[in-house]
Amino acid sequence: PPWMLLLLPLPGGGGRCQYASFSQSPSEISVSPGQTVALECAVANVTADKVNMNWIRQSPGQKPEGVLFFKIDLSIYRAPGIPERYVPSRDASNKKFLLTIRDVQEGDDSIYFCFAFYTEGVQTWGEGTRVRVLSEYESGCSQEEIATGFATLTCLVSGFFPGYIDVLWRQDCQTQAQGVRTGLVALGEDKTYSVSSYLTVPANEWGSGASYSCVVKHESLPSREPLLPDPRGPVRFNLPHTQGHT
């Protein structure tokens, strides 16, 4: 695309080019639509005010695409389709760049990379930051059985297309990683996908009054309206079947 023509060489000292190295943080961040998120790219080996910074992104199953080009003189060149709520900045004293995304939308879900290109053909990349935009379908998940001192909660998601989906668990407002087991996405005879996710918690925590919820992210989901579970069984999400996506 035309914006890629703006990838300029990084100035070095004297006749020898000194290449920058980048370190991004955080590695992953979850955010709800409407919030603001800031991605950091720290610079080493050169001063930040000598760097022409590029930001690109890659969504799951898609090719990398340009986000914007941030020149040494602080001018900004956004790629076609990138709105002004994507705001780059530079903190030269702390040798870092920021990419701030305001009023986050579901289409902002992607992996973002800071990137520099040199005339010698050398490329320098950050490790990437995964921005996970959540459409929250939350409900008090019910337990199957409390046995041997543990409670297992089940979240069933079915009828979605394409097959890329995120399923997370939360205890109150905190995302849970321990005790989570998510099965493989399965393709059904109707050409839609399904997946099951399980959260195992100690029985004493289950009885403590904490609220457990299953959070589902998929491109076919509409507005963030809560889905109430069947109190007699596991949480079930039947997602709309949207063909025509690649």
UniProtKB/TrEMBL annotation:
Keywords: Disulfide bond, Immunoglobulin domain. Residues 223-246 are annotated as: Disordered. SUPFAM superfamilies: Immunoglobulin. Transmembrane segments: none annotated. Residues 20-116, 129-220 form the Ig-like domain. Pfam families: C1-set (PF07654), V-set (PF07686). CDD domains: IgC1, IgV. InterPro entries: Ig-like_dom (IPR007110), Ig-like_dom_sf (IPR036179), Ig-like_fold (IPR013783), Ig/MHC_CS (IPR003006), Ig_C1-set (IPR003597), Ig_sub (IPR003599), Ig_V-set (IPR013106), Immune_Resp_Modulators (IPR050380). This is Ig-like domain-containing protein. It comes from Chrysemys picta bellii (Western painted turtle).
